[in-house]
Write a structure and sequence with these properties.
Strand content: under 5%
Strand order of the largest sheet: 1-2
Oligomer: single chain
Distance between the termini: 75 Å
Length: about 1200
């Protein structure tokens, strides 16, 4: 008779030349586990291992594949197993052959990533999921299984009833018990009385059952089945076996009937080593439940032995002792000791036959259950299990590959350490580094949170080294919010320890009370005892911040990177602000921002003088105060950032709480006080910390949280805010730091949001413009700004600073009038915008000068920004004139067109004179796209204005405006398409090198890839942080360039006509799916079908927005305004007549094909096939 025709139950097929065996007697042995006795002998050597040596089998080799996950057994891999590995057969029918002569037992063969090296017979690689059967609670009959899960009786009653059945018929009751375990594993087959009477055949009978079980194709079983049940299956199963052991103990059968426990142990241990996961998991659960009950029994017996020992000693100590009573007590004590030994033997049997194998099972559920059980045993019976030979398993499992298992280990260790940490010194010393490593570097956030809780316990018991304390404390800067909140208690305790140390250094609590006295409750400007806590907090934050900075040293970004918007001038969040956000929730001194401000504003400068005087006077309270409480420069910087975060959090919470009460004047006074008080404090802070850019940035950031409604409604307080604006403008004028200018610009933008304060803010901005324009015209008068390389380093640096401030001011409010106004200064009479447009030509690179090129490029980038804002404001003005019906003069349009053409020419000079992935080249290319799409927005309004009055006059007016404005709608010349593609190629290849991606080959009709040399900088020399920074920078450059191209294409301003029509679009989508999700989503907008699906949502969102067109809207979105304007017009491609293809090449080629000459001199030639073509209104698509 042949073996079962099932791939799940047979071993992998032998080689093609192997003879097919017809023997049936050996086939079941491939599932046979080691006998319990042999298992004990196998582990005997392991029990002698030292606690700090983890054997190889303590680790799970690797996870199973998805197909093998339901059947593979544990990874217990003897070295002999690796020699038998063999590639799988490509024919599934081979698996039907009988087992080989040396079958693998207990899932010894480790699973490979492909599932090709398994040698046990439980492999189901091709079983379809549709054939899954769920066999839970569907067994016929009224056996023990039905009584446990279907009768509704308590587990204790069912166990008692089974005990009585066992007393009546031992074999039948044991058979019913084993069948119950099989049924709990989802097996419909049963064993009979003969199987129970023949324990030596246990393994063979289980192998037969496994064959039948596997043939049925069951991959789900009760323990893992998810169903809504009033009494969970697992709880009922565990409850029954716990009560069963308890009843056997109470009746004495546990000690008098060795056959019963031997039978149960044999069947359960054999099933727990099965290659089938349902058998293995169910048997392990049963064994752990019985072990837990035995532990409870052992604890009761220990209590009984202790009491009886005391009784015997007491009886012996009596003068008139009764020998008979003493003999009875001694007999009871002997019996209790005997029962305790018997119970311990059974505990050891279950541990050695089940736990030592299953704690490293391939199934993480089984491993987790084992860890949970071991922790429970240690907790309830520490006299036995709190020993190195048991504790080491918890230490080894800290390195489990599954986060849930590691988390369970930490949970058990946490409660054990809380009670018995002092007794586990050796274990803690061995595994403490691993615990700290898990808290700081584990890949799973939940595991890190659990590890931090354990480390906190070790800190409370004084078992952490200083380095480990710092490693855990630095987690307050972690990027994960859950981690920062988890370590908050740890960090707070470190601060409290530092406060205690500081108080001792100052002379004790009595000295502190004498120095600070009672203190004034409402005054924050005078010394307070709370300042000690602030000082300690600042010291710890400075220490941790310096440690993190030393570990992750990153060079500051280049000034040019900031100038071209590759890197932000001011980071929105720093590690200090992230830490302060959670410290605000826990530490009162951080929550009280008035206290922090008072500490920072206090004059600590006399501390040095007090030091020298105190040495002669023997010490004074003032000297002690200043020497121990005065902050250093680094601490002031940290505390200012904490103050900024605290203010924002406090004002946000206050605004939410007072949202409803603000309507009532009586409650308004309470809510307005924080903003007025903060507006008073900011000028004082600026006077003290405004000299240094690093501190001025943080103080200016405080203004962003002000509720300006207070000053808008209470006119008597406008003077307070006026003084604040004066200080902000002073900082803008004084500093050249980009961070300071960015924060000051944001503060002025904030002021212009409110109508009552807009006039006040505009007056301050006008004063700043006057200063900046005068400085700019001074340079224009003394030197030629349109020639590159004609200035020294100091001069070009100063010009860059002036242009930087102009770009910031132009982003705040409408600057058209100021920039178009002619000057009365001799030598610089031209409007400022003409000088700016002329300055852009400095970007034309003819000769490399490493000392000046970055400075020159910075100045050009700021000039480009200012010009771009000018054109945006100008277009907004023209749109307003069209919508209001105001007259637009031809002279004005000619002037704007002349500026546009000159600006475009200078941008083309800049981008065509540079090679590879030059930063200014990318920036100038983006500026060119932005320029055209800004005017595309104007074209849309001119062609069909929704707000214009209807009628013949209105139509004629629109036609007149359209004809007048048509010169502004010229598209990007088709001759630049190849140049634009080359720029995109460079950016794409640069990012592909950073992320180690291989790009797709070009199509046959596309240009071949130009091989270029790799970067001069050796990436192997970069640190991981520097590599990540470079990757992010190149990705941002590529995505921003792609976004500019996409908007320009959709606005019908490029790639629409000529012999290269559609070439740019086709090139951009070549690697759309190769370089990350950001680029993919950006290029997805080129799919018109997908874009049309988004139209209804974009239109609905646009209706909700305020379209009044105030200047603040442009300023607030200075970095993204171009994108917002560009996307307002998207048109389906129309057919147009092709143009002759111009020649490609350098600047001379551009001149030869007439592109540059036409722009420079042909002001009256507006081009007939530009953006002024008529468009069908139904074909336009509005995007947001």
């Amino acid at each position: 008779m042949e073996t079962s025709d099932n791939t799940a139950t047979s071993s992998p097929a032998p080689s093609g030349t192997a003879r097919r065996s017809g023997r049936v007697t050996k086939a079941p042995q491939k599932f046979s586990p080691d006998a319990p006795a042999a298992t004990k002998r196998k582990r005997a050597g392991d029990d002698d291992d030292a606690e700090n040596e983890s054997p190889d089998e303590a680790e799970v080799d690797e996870e199973p594949s998805a197909e093998e996950d339901a059947e593979d057994s544990e990874v217990e891999a003897p070295k002999r197993a690796s020699k038998k590995k063999r590639a799988p057969s490509s024919q599934p029918a081979r698996a039907r052959k009988p087992a080989t002569k040396k079958p693998k037992i207990n899932g010894d063969a480790p699973s490979s990533s492909t599932g090709s090296n398994l040698t046990h017979a439980a492999r189901l690689p091709s079983r379809p999921k549709k054939a899954v059967k769920i066999n839970i609670g569907q067994r016929d009959g009224d056996g023990l299984y039905a009584e446990i899960f279907a009768s509704g009786d308590s587990s204790e009653k069912v166990a008692t009833d089974w005990y009585h059945k066992y007393r009546a018929d031992k074999v039948a009751a044991t058979t019913d018990l084993v069948n119950c375990i099989l049924a709990s594993a989802g097996c419909d087959q049963k064993v009979d009385d003969d199987d129970i009477r023949d324990p030596d055949n246990c393994q063979n009978r289980l192998a037969d059952l496994q064959n039948v079980y596997a043939e049925e194709g069951i991959t789900d079983y009760p323990l893992i089945q998810r169903g809504k049940s009033v009494r969970p299956f697992r709880d009922l199963l565990i409850g029954f076996f716990k009560h069963l052991v308890t009843i056997l103990h109470e009746t004495g059968l546990l000690y008098t009937d060795e056959t019963l426990m031997d039978n149960i142990t044999r069947w359960v241990a054999s099933m727990s080593s099965s290659t089938l996961r349902p058998f293995r998991h169910t048997a392990t659960t049963v064994a752990l439940a019985m072990q837990a009950a035995l532990v409870d029994v052992a604890r009761k017996l220990d209590d009984r032995v202790t009491k009886m020992t005391q009784a015997v000693d007491s009886e012996k100590g009596r003068k008139g002792k009764s020998k008979e009573r003493l003999a009875q007590t001694q007999q009871s004590l002997n019996e209790a000791n005997k029962n305790r030994d018997s119970c311990q033997n059974q505990i050891t049997d279950f541990f050695e036959t089940v736990f030592v194998h299953r704690y490293r099972d391939i199934d993480p559920k089984i491993r987790t259950e084992c860890v949970e059980a071991l922790g429970s045993w240690i907790w309830h019976l520490p006299t036995v299990f709190m020993e190195p030979e048991y504790l080491r398993y918890l230490g080894w499992m800290l390195s489990d590959i599954v986060p849930q298992t590691r988390q369970e280990v930490l949970k058990q260790l946490g409660r054990i350490f809380k009670r018995d940490a002092e007794k586990l010194g050796h274990f803690i010393d061995r595994f403490r580094p691993r615990l700290v490593e898990m808290a700081t570097k584990d890949s799973d956030v939940s595991v890190r949170v659990a590890a931090i809780a354990v480390v906190q316990i070790l800190k409370d018991t004084g078992m952490l080294d200083p380095e480990e304390l710092d490693a855990a404390g630095r987690l307050i800067f972690d990027s994960e919010l859950r981690v920062r909140r988890a370590v908050l208690e740890f960090f707070t305790s470190c601060v409290n320890d530092a406060i205690e140390t500081k108080v001792e250094e100052m002379g004790g609590q009595d000295t502190v009370d004498e120095i600070f006295g009672d203190g004034e409750e409402g005054s924050y400007d005078s010394p307070r005892e709370d300042w000690i806590a602030i000082k300690c907090l600042a010291e710890i934050l400075v220490s941790y911040d310096s440690q993190v900075q030393d570990e992750n040293q990153i060079e500051p970004p280049r000034a040019l990177d900031i100038a071209v918007d590759m890197v932000q001038a001011v980071a929105p969040e720093t590690r200090i602000s992230l830490a302060a956000q959670v410290l605000y929730e826990k530490i009162d001194h951080v929550k009280n921002w008035e206290l922090l401000a008072g500490y920072l504003l206090y004059d600590h400068t006399a501390s040095a003088k007090s030091k020298s005087k105190s040495q002669s006077k023997g010490g004074s309270n003032e000297a002690i105060l200043r020497n121990n409480v005065a902050p250093s420069n680094e601490e002031e910087l940290i505390l200012l950032e904490v103050l900024a975060t605290s203010v924002n959090s406090a004002l946000a919470a206050n605004a939410e709480a007072d949202k409803n009460r603000r309507k009532h004047r009586s409650d308004f006074d309470a809510s307005e006080e924080p903003s007025i008080q903060l507006a008073t404090l900011i000028p004082r802070l600026l006077k003290k910390f405004g000299a240094e850019p690093s501190t001025a940035v943080l103080v200016l950031r405080l203004e962003h949280g002000l509720d300006l409604d207070v000053f808008q409604q209470l006119r008597q307080d406008s003077s307070t805010y006026s003084r604040l604006l004066d200080e902000i403008c002073t900082q803008f004028s004084r500093h050249i730091d980009r961070g300071v200018l960015t924060e000051a610009t944001a503060a002025l933008l904030h002021a212009r949001k409110y109508d009552e304060l807009q006039e006040l803010a505009d007056a301050k901005i006008s004063d700043l413009w006057e200063i900046v324009l005068n400085n700019f015209r001074h340079f224009d008068k003394t030197c030629e700004l349109g020639v590159r390389g004609n200035l020294e380093k100091e001069s070009i640096t100063e010009i860059g600073h002036v242009l930087l401030k102009m770009s910031k001011l132009s982003s705040i409010a409408d600057c058209v009038e100021l920039l178009e106004q002619e000057s009365q200064i001799d030598g610089s009479e031209a409007p400022a915008i003409e000088i700016l447009v002329r300055t852009v030509i400095r970007g034309k690179l003819e000769q490399v000068d490493e000392t000046l090129d970055d400075l020159e490029d910075e100045a050009v980038s700021f000039a480009i920004k200012t010009c771009q804002f000018y054109f945006m404001w100008k277009v907004r003005t023209l749109i307003g004139a069209i919508q209001s019906g105001s007259e637009i003069t031809a002279r004005e349009i000619q002037r704007v067109n002349s500026l546009r053409r000159t600006y475009q020419t200078n941008l083309i000079y800049t981008l065509t004179s540079r090679g590879t992935n030059d930063d200014l080249r990318l920036f100038a290319t983006g500026g060119l796209c932005d320029l055209h799409v800004v005017f595309a927005t104007l074209r849309q309004v001119a062609q069909g204005d929704e707000h214009a009055p209807q009628g013949d006059d209105a139509a004629r007016k629109r036609q007149s405006n359209l004809a007048l404005l048509e010169p502004l709608f010229k598209e990007i010349d088709p001759g630049l398409i190849n140049e634009l593609i080359e720029i995109y190629d460079s950016a794409e290849r640069a990012y592909a090198r950073c992320v180690k991606k291989t790009l797709n080959e070009p199509a046959e009709d596309e240009d071949p890839i130009d091989e270029e040399l790799s970067d001069d900088e050796d990436e192997d020399e970069l640190t991981p942080a520097e590599k990540k920074a470079k990757e992010l920078k190149t990705e941002r450059g590529l995505c921003e360039l792609a976004g500019k191209y996409v908007l320009c294409i959709l606005a019908k301003m490029v790639d629409r006509q000529g012999p290269h029509a559609g070439k740019l679009r086709k090139r951009m989508v070549r690697n759309q799916n190769k370089l990350g999700q950001n680029l993919k989503e950006t290029l997805a907008y080129l799919d018109e079908g997908r874009l049309r699906e988004r139209m209804p949502r974009a239109a609905a969102a646009k209706k909700k927005k305020d379209v009044e067109g105030k200047g603040k809207e442009v300023a607030e979105n200075s970095n993204s305004k171009a994108k917002k304007v560009l996307s307002e017009e998207i048109i389906v491609d129309e057919e147009s007549e092709p143009e002759p293809e111009p020649e490609e090449g350098t600047e001379e080629d551009l001149r030869r094909r007439g592109l540059l000459d036409e722009i420079e001199s042909g002001e009256d030639e507006d081009g007939d096939d530009g953006g002024g073509d008529k468009m069908d209104e139904d074909e336009s698509i509005l995007g947001d």
